[in-house]
Amino acid sequence: MAYKSLILEKEGAIATITLNRPDAGNAFDFSLMVEFDDVMKVVGGDPGIRVVIITGAGKHFSTGIDLSIFTNPAGLVEKEGGASEISPDPDDQTYGKGTPIASVIRIRNMNKPVIAAINGAVIGAAFSMVLACDMRIASDKARFSMVFVKRGIVPDTGGSFTLPRIVGFPKACELILTGDTIDAAEADRIGLVNRVVPHDDLMTAARELAGKIAKNPPLAVEMAKGDLYNAMAETDFMEQMKREEASQSKLLNTEDFMEAATAFLEKREPQFKGR
Fold it and tell me: What DSSP letter does each residue of 185-219 carry, written as one string?
């Protein structure tokens, strides 16, 4: 499938999505919105992909929504040489399909881990999107801003939900109500990112993490991700343990579990098939 505003690459079980409007800071115009939502649906439904990496081309991850779409949408489409050839699936019932809202929903509901490899500035709605990812590796050149209030609006795309759950309520209040920009070191200090690496090592670090995950049994990874997110909303310890038991019961009856046990006893590398 051909995309105009992003690049999809597959290497083994790892898919890398690169936002590709570097001259516009990888800001989301209508074309990129539709294409990014489509590609998240594609990779989410591809059984050959076990881990997804998202990054940006050029010096920014993404500067958020392209504000020119609010002032001159027709002119923007003409300037960009036409809208995307991708059209949202009419049978798709995902809320907000064709927009960053749907993309974030797909990231959160995807049965495979999503890693954000943050190469530079990530601002506004793009910041919210990064927060929806399961893990975040940041270049030492990365910058983060919940800029919404400075534009006279409030965080959207799930940002007000995810940020306090990651960095805690007081720090989320500070970042959202000031709209301040923080650097990679501060993001690391407050637990916003998994780690910070030298800029030139970013994609190597992201792929190494993705590779470690991709080697594991995909059904176990899928259920572990689901159990983790359920636990964030669960208030009853016993109910969460019951969910864990249900997941464990299913996994104990899979070929991958038997392969893991057999390979361990035979002192060899397991070969998982996702069944």
Answer: HHHHHTTSSSEEE-GGGHHHHHHHHHHHHHTS-HH
Backbone angles phi, psi at 10, to 5 degrees: -120, 130
Report CA dihedral (32, 35, 38, 39) to the nearest 10 degrees.
-90
Q: Each residue of 183-206: pLDDT tens digit?
A: 999 999 999 999 999 999 999 999
User: What does the longest C-alpha to C-alpha distance in the chain come to?
Assistant: 65
- What does the pLDDT average to over 7-33? 95
157: buried, middle or exposed (CB in 10 Å: 19+, 13-18, 0-12)? buried
Rounded CA-CA distance 246/251 in Å is 9
Rounded CA-CA distance 77/248 in Å is 50
Whole-angstrom Cα distance, residue 67 to residue 203? 29
Q: What is the mean pLDDT of residues 128-153?
A: 96
